[in-house]
Amino acid sequence: MKILGIGVDIIDNKRIQKFIKSNKFKNRIYSAKELKLSEKTKNKVAFFSKRFAAKEAFSKALGTGFSGNLNFKDIEIVNDKKGKPKYVKSKKIIKMIKKKYRINKFNSFLSISDENDYSTAFAIIQSK
Q1: How many domains, in total, are found in the chain?
Q2: What CATH number does the domain containing 34 carry?
Q3: The model scores a pTM over 0.85
Q4: Which of 20, 63, 66, 67 is the most buried (most CB within 10 A)?
Q5: How wide is the angle at C-alpha 114 spanned by C-alphas 13 and 14, nearest 5°?
Q6: How many whole angstroms from its chain centre is CA 112?
């Protein structure tokens, strides 16, 4: 197994607090599943901020940023039964990683955290 990419991001929660007032912003950045999950959380700012940072971190781990064919909604974050966040391996992401790294199988890892003012995320993409 080899680490293919590492990405990290930090975001000022006040910035996201302003943006999430706009449905246009939320619909451009977050998947339908993420928007549905947000309805179950009390702290909307933390929910959206952490996911925004996680999407940025993944794009950095991929080494592309949000350029070319990659957009925010292509990167989806869900939680397992115990609450651990993880990336969804969509067909598009799988195809991009296969093409870029010429591999068939990979793992992705995500750690997210927040405080009052900031949210941060750390992503790793690893070959299997």
Answers
A1: 1
A2: 3.90.470.20
A3: yes
A4: 20
A5: 10
A6: 9
